[in-house]
Design goal:
Structural class: mainly alpha
Radius of gyration: 18 Å
Number of strands: 0
Strand content: under 5%
Number of helices: 8
Mean pLDDT: 93
Low-confidence stretches: none
Shape: globular
Length: about 210
């Protein structure tokens, strides 16, 4: 597949993620939703945060895609690549958390119905495909893989404080089930690192080229 074709497909994927995610989040902010009393409370969920992070990164990658198509540059900026990388790791974690943990607890309709179809399935899939298969410009390092899990680590600390220490939030992700947060939460961090390394391996293996960003 040529660079031009990949860039056009990347542009399409990122445009869908950015546009739909922005529409959903803005709608929730204005009108609220069935799971939060006030619109701003949607940001207590990692799903929202990781989708917003990826939407911002998608917009930035789109800008680079347009410049690549115009011949003004040959790669996506490394900073934007790392931002997208972190978003993809977060959305991949979201997808599997929903699939294996939240659907058994809350049901498939609540998790994959309505806006959940985009936030929990479509956005993770489109972001993963575009990042791994279409945006192959610079190789990712182990250091990059560690940077990519920082949003997960930061959210994990906030979640621990709000749920376990201050008890301001309900344990909606069930990470403190049976008081086992000291096992479950480090496991989530470890799984995230494993996902980050696997995504790096796939992207580098499929084919990248060295180049300045």
């Amino acid at each position: 597949m040529s660079l031009k074709t990949k860039t056009i497909l990347s542009l399409i994927c990122n445009a869908i993620v950015f546009t739909v995610t922005t529409g959903i989040v803005v709608s929730r902010m204005i009108f609220g939703s069935e799971i939060v009393e006030h619109g701003y409370m949607t940001f207590i969920f990692f799903t929202t945060d990781s989708n917003v992070l990826t939407a911002v990164a998608s917009l930035l990658v789109m800008i680079c895609d347009v410049k690549i198509l115009r011949g003004e540059r040959t790669t996506v900026a490394k900073t934007f690549t790392l931002l997208k990388y972190a978003g993809v790791v977060g959305l991949t974690l979201t997808f599997f958390t929903v699939l294996f943990l939240l659907i058994p607890i809350y049901g498939i309709g609540m998790q994959w119905g309505g806006t959940g179809a985009h936030m929990h399935v479509a956005a993770p899939a489109l972001s993963f495909v575009s990042f791994v298969f279409l945006e192959q410009h610079t190789r990712l390092s182990i250091r990059d893989a560690l940077i990519a899990i920082l949003p997960v680590v930061i959210y994990g600390i906030v979640y621990f404080l709000q749920v376990v220490v201050f008890r301001n939030w309900m344990d909606f992700y069930a990470f403190n089930s049976g008081g086992m947060w000291y096992l479950i939460m480090p496991a989530i961090i470890g799984i995230s690192l494993g996902m980050s390394l696997l995504i790096r391996l796939l992207r580098n293996k499929i084919g990248t080229k060295k180049g300045s960003a």
